[in-house]
Design a protein that fits this description.
Number of domains: 2
Strand content: 15-25%
Oligomer: single chain
Shape: globular
Mean pLDDT: 95
Distance between the termini: 45 Å
EC number: 4.3.1.19
Helix content: 40-55%
Protein name: Threonine dehydratase
Number of strands: 10
CATH architecture of the largest domain: 3-Layer(aba) Sandwich
Order of helices and strands: HEHEHHEHEHEHEHHEHEHHEHHHE
Largest sheet: 6 strands, mixed
Structural class: alpha/beta
InterPro entries: Ser/Thr_deHydtase_PyrdxlP-BS, TrpB-like_PALP, TrpB-like_PALP_sf
Cofactor: pyridoxal 5'-phosphate; Ca(2+); Mg(2+); Mn(2+)
Pfam family, one: PALP
CATH class of the largest domain: Alpha Beta
Length: 316
């Protein structure tokens, strides 16, 4: 591998480091969903995580690892959602400032969360170039350390702790599924699974309307996201370079789900499990249900990535 990725010892150390800042989330199952899916599913509920998403892990790990000098100037990032809130919260717990560049069209619930955790929001036009140039200006002015949302070793190491818990609590899984957007969760999941349970396949779910990871995986090179269009607003980002290397090495497959399939899977979890998840979170289950033969009779772990949904805009 061209990069030196975190070792299993590094991931375990990260887990110990962030323990005071995160929940150890429960694993739930549903007999009704198992019957519909034709396999046994164990849902790792990161929708119950601090800030309502797995992102709390990577942000906490990145902030705790900063030097005292870096901490004194705070942290900055650009994010339209869960990473923004996660970093603002991690900074708040550490008693340091956070500067969050958010596109003007970011969901209100996510802006409220960032403000609630004491983050300073700097709005920009809703495109990647505007996000990046605004962030550069903020970093130049404040001296804050940029903590990228997913393509960053300390963040990947933090996200890798999620499946560490899953495999401790529920070993002997045939398949583990995670959604893929930037790839921080999927990359971390694939790495930990490779160390702890190499026989377990890692399969990603991705929206058909934002399928750059699928295209990149098939082509063997990064194909940037262009004009994504999906209800899964947390998975609109282009795949990270570090994460792509992990995916190429340790992910068995990437399966697509259409928006109607994502909505159906989301609704199924609401109705059968009585828990709140966001659209991005339903993508792995949607992909599984669209490819049932592949999972028949298997034991499948699915990471429910987050539950930050605007209830006024539910798709059903």
């Amino acid at each position: 591998m061209s990069q030196t990725f975190p070792s299993l010892a590094d991931i375990k150390a990260a887990h110990a480091r962030i323990k005071p800042f995160i929940h150890r989330t429960p694993i739930l199952s549903s007999t009704a969903i198992n019957e519909i899916a034709g396999c046994e599913i164990f849902f790792k509920c990161e929708n119950f995580q601090k800030v309502g998403a797995f992102k709390a892990r990577g942000a906490a790990n990145a902030v705790v690892k900063l030097t005292e000098e870096q901490k004194s100037k705070g942290v900055a990032t650009h994010s339209s959602g869960n990473h923004a809130a996660a970093l603002a919260r991690a900074a708040s717990v550490a008693g340091i400032p956070s500067y969050i560049v958010m596109p003007s069209n970011a969901p209100e619930i996510k802006k409220k969360a960032v403000k609630g955790y004491g983050g300073e929001i700097i709005e920009c036009e809703p495109n990647l170039k505007a996000r990046e140039t605004t962030l550069e200006a903020v970093v130049a002015k404040t001296g804050a350390t940029f903590i990228p949302p997913y393509d960053f070793m300390d963040v990947i190491e933090g996200q890798a702790t999620c499946v560490l818990e899953l495999l401790e609590d529920q070993p002997n899984l045939d398949i583990i599924m995670a959604p893929v957007g930037g790839g921080g969760l999927l990359g971390g999941t694939a790495l930990t699974t490779h160390y702890l349970s190499p026989k377990t396949e890692v399969i990603a779910g991705e929206p058909a309307g934002a399928d750059d990871a699928f295209q990149s995986f098939q082509a063997g090179k990064i194909i940037p996201q262009s004009r994504p269009n999906t209800i899964a607003d947390g998975l609109l980002t282009s795949l990270g370079v570090l994460n792509f290397e992990l995916i190429q090495n340790y992910v068995a497959d990437i399966l697509l789900a259409t928006d109607p399939q994502i909505i159906e899977a989301m609704r199924l979890i609401y109705e059968r499990m009585k828990i709140v998840i966001e659209p991005s979170c339903a993508v792995p289950l949607a992909a599984l249900l669209a490819n049932q033969d592949r999972f028949a009779g298997k034991k499948v772990g699915i990471i429910l990535s987050g539950g930050n949904v605007d209830l006024g805009k539910l798709p059903f």
